[in-house]
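## retry 2 of 3
previous attempt timed out at serialization; input unchanged, resubmitting
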Amino acid sequence: MTPAVPALPGVAELLEAAQQEGVAPAITAFVLRRGAWVHESCHGEIPAASKRPLGPGDRFDVASLTKVMVTTSVAVQLVAEGRLDVDAPAAAWLPGFDRGERGRITIRHLLAHTSGLPAHRPLFERAMADPAAGKAFLPPAERPRGAQLVAAFARGEELLREAVLAEPLEAPPGSRAVYSDLGFLALGWVVEAAGGDRLARLAQRRVFEPLGMHLTGFVDGQDPLEAAAFVKASAFAPTERCVHRHEVNQGTVNDDNAWAAGGATGHAGLFSTAAEVAALGQAWLDALRGGHGVIPREARQFARRDASVAGSTRALGWDTPSAEGSTIGTRLGHGPRGAIGHLGWTGCSLWIDLDRELVCALLSNHCHPGGSDRERLNAFRARFHDAVAAALDIG
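## retry succeeded, writing output
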């Protein structure tokens, strides 16, 4: 017999109202408390063969949750194995990253967003202008397939790497905290060098398969056979209408910098479900409670807020609640151990309350069909977490 799907009082109603009010066409949430499944619900529609109600197996582009679910998770494993040192220069694994002050950038700086690299640059524009890489940005009907498209993505990644290696720093390493996609692009390449494989395969072998996360992965344009098999498994929530690619992104990464490299990068590109995002969160929670598992005990140093830069809320890879206006809401994350979490630009989030042993995965395609209202989205995220806390009599 199929077990009944649990629902917390008032939470599904809040999510349904948010979907009806236009926060996102599709919203889903999954909540674990002390490892027990306490809430799951799906709201809205998804265009598959035709429009149908959103289901628990439908996958979302989780955007920057890639930074913690993949890059940070593999990095902490490599640290535990002695293959990566967070206080060593990134240039030890990233040749060409040692010019000028960039030579002082450590793995810790990249994880804590204190490298001095800028937040974002439209690096994909270099790929669009390149004769080989630009083929990936042709309209779908004109876009090459097979080996030609793989070559376009490989050239695009080469251009991205050259751009990041040459990008001037905006501040000396360690002097400020600015959330940086470029820093995690670089960190993804460091993890690949230390791990000896492409990031998508490292994450699949080291994290997703051991945790039973069979619906989580990259659509990696540089590995078309694996990408095709992954796309067949279930449907995807659409994200933006992309003027650069002349299509609505659905089953392809929303982030254009990630797309230029094929869709599997250190800062973005992952697809997952609410249940599997929560499973990853539970693996981190288990490690932080001293358990042995996929995430090693070295996770404890990653979950501590970086104290080297005044005012930063960043831990290593993760964020922590800010004093005012956090998307974790007003009731969670305020115990002695606090909380760790991360947001994704498309409309996704993962927060882990360490004292209440609570994992909250909230996924949406808020950016579909075009654009985003950050203030509205973040207010909705806070209301969701407050509703979860109220239903569990927390706070």
